[in-house]
Design brief:
Elements: E1 8-14, H1 18-29, E2 34-38, H2 44-49, H3 51-69, H4 83-94, H5 97-108, E3 111-114, E4 117-121, E5 124-127, E6 130-139, E7 143-145, H6 159-162, E8 171-175, H7 179-190, E9 194-198, H8 210-222, E10 226-228, E11 231-238, E12 245-251, E13 254-260, E14 262-265, E15 269-271, E16 285-286, E17 289-290, E18 304-306, H9 319-334, E19 348-350, E20 355-360, H10 363-368, E21 373-379, H11 384-387, E22 395-401, E23 407-414, H12 417-429, H13 434-439, H14 451-454
Parallel strand pairs: 1-2, 1-6, 2-3, 6-18, 8-9, 8-14, 9-10
Antiparallel strand pairs: 4-5, 5-6, 7-15, 11-12, 12-13, 16-17, 19-20, 20-23, 21-22, 22-23
Helix pairs in contact: 1-9, 3-4, 3-7
Bound molecules: flavin-adenine dinucleotide and nicotinamide-adenine-dinucleotide.
Protein name: NAD(P)/FAD-dependent oxidoreductase
Family: Belongs to the class-I pyridine nucleotide-disulfide oxidoreductase family.
Keywords: FAD, Flavoprotein
Amino acid sequence: MTASSESTFDLIVLGTGSAGQSVATACREQGWSVAIIDSRPFGGTCSQRGCDPKRVLAGAAELIARSRNLKGKGLAGENAIDWADLMAFKTTFVENIPQSTEEKFEEAGIRYFHGSASFTGKNSIRVGEEELTGGKIVIATGAKPATLGIEGEDLLGNSEGFLDLKELPSTLAFIGGGYISFEFAHIAAEAGANVHIIHNNDKPLKNFEPDLVDALVQRMRELGIVFHLNAKTEKISRTESGEGYVLEGTENGQPFRLECGLAVHGAGRVPNVDELDLEKGGVEADKKGVTVDEHLRSVSNSDVYAAGDVSGSPGLPLTPIAGLEARAVSANLLEEGSVKPNYTATPSIVFTYPMLASVGMTEEQARKSGKEIKVNTVDMSGWYTYKRMGEKPSMAKVILDQSSGCILGAHVLNGEAEHLINYFAIAMRHGLTAAQLSDTLYGYPTDGSDLKYLLET
Ligand SMILES: Cc1cc2nc3c(=O)[nH]c(=O)nc-3n(C[C@H](O)[C@H](O)[C@H](O)COP(=O)(O)OP(=O)(O)OC[C@H]3O[C@@H](n4cnc5c(N)ncnc54)[C@H](O)[C@@H]3O)c2cc1C
Ligand SMILES: NC(=O)c1ccc[n+]([C@@H]2O[C@H](COP(=O)([O-])OP(=O)(O)OC[C@H]3O[C@@H](n4cnc5c(N)ncnc54)[C@H](O)[C@@H]3O)[C@@H](O)[C@H]2O)c1
């Protein structure tokens, strides 16, 4: 493809996050003329407002917790988080991203536009005063916090605001009991705040293994985090002084009222399509996002593809999936219909301490699958690897397929969960049996050298 003029491109990409950048770069490398548009400073969510800055804060919280585990076992003294210093450190990771992303586009010969993009026709996009035409268009506009329908909802902060807090309020409330609330509640609690999580049913972290979630909730309660389960927030208002907020609603059917310095939205994110004028582009979407076929092509406009959080694909809204889908879309643009993304064994991690990690089926899903399974549920807190670090709880559940010897699911709650889950993900994605994973030689003493005890058939 070679169409190129001031306003006509082989490809127009909407969004400069993990998905959009990847598609734009891959197609430009193959000689396509490419335009990319973003309404916010370039770089997307993960690097500026999500995974990366979050994990800088979570790292400090984790260290506090780890050192507490060894108190009286060789470590003395108190560690504490200096919020202002931590924020300043976090800023060093994010402050240059818009500029460096822009420079990357410049060097690659990708035309970039700042502004909100919307369709004006099947192959045309408006950004500001400009009207661009694209042979192909990729929608990679990510996700945004869901509207909750609570009175006074505009008083709610969100994950982005939390990541930029100059001062940590003494009391925080998180609405929703998912990834964002658990991770941020843990950070705030380790930094010394009083923290509440208000969740609308009795199953927080709904896609994770319930036994391990229960153990994590117990750990978080010990840290002082208060859980309000089966709770419905009906109204948010300012306190009389105007300095804080009042949440009112019901908890297990009884009225509750909570005053806090900040209430944060952690109640789910939805695909970012509202500003795109999709009807004008003939692009169908529903609440899961842009409706796509198995090649991530719009089912209603064959020149349009979607990747990342905005796509209505079966992939989870996580950064590795944005990358996977972007690679599939790039391949399909360059050679039509060539790649279907393979979502097998997507690992997912809640970055609390201990971390909760999961890949593949839960026990309940495996039982329903009709397969002949073996479930290894293991308390590892007495094992050398965890005992030496004073780690409690340390738990895992591994689900094996008795007939093939393969791993169907793995779930881990401890300080090494981020590593262990990746070993399981490798095995599951590439069809290694439990015996093969067990037979691998691992450095000793490490989390890997324990694996064989989780894989007994
Ligand atoms: C607080 C938080 C923590 C997270 N932590 C993790 C984690 O630890 N691990 C993990 O795997 N995932 C994590 N995620 C999820 C991860 O950030 C997303 O899955 C990933 O960033 C999605 O990438 P994307 O390219 O699809 O979208 P984004 O990176 O969101 O990019 C979309 C871009 O499109 C732009 N845009 C939107 N509408 C328009 C428009 N009309 N015109 C022009 N531009 C537009 C936006 O400004 C944005 O820059 C986290 C998310 C959040 C919010
Ligand atoms: N570590 C990670 O990988 C990570 C971290 C943060 C965010 N993310 C991504 O961001 C997405 C959004 O995260 P999230 O934590 O906002 O959502 P989530 O989907 O993880 O959890 C939201 C929870 O809020 C509950 N809820 C919904 N409305 C409510 C209400 N009005 N009151 C109380 N509870 C309510 C829901 O039952 C749900 O379980 C995630 O799905 C994930 O893909 C990933």
